[in-house]
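The material for today's practical consists of a large collection of protein records. A record pairs a protein's sequence with a compact description of its fold. Instead of coordinates, the fold is spelled out as a row of discrete tokens. We will come back to this pairing of sequence and fold again and again. Here is such a record, shown just as it appears in the course material.
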Amino acid sequence: MAKKSVASLQTGSKRLTKAIKMVKSPKTGAYVFVESVMAPEFVKDFLAKK
């Protein structure tokens, strides 16, 4: 049987979180998704700003 390795978002001792939010485009009015990989303590600031 073959073993499968799984990659994670951990680099060294840092934990990272991927945050995704929907933002309405001012030009077209369509919604777009904005993704960012950051430390867990910055997630609330990222989601709070427009």
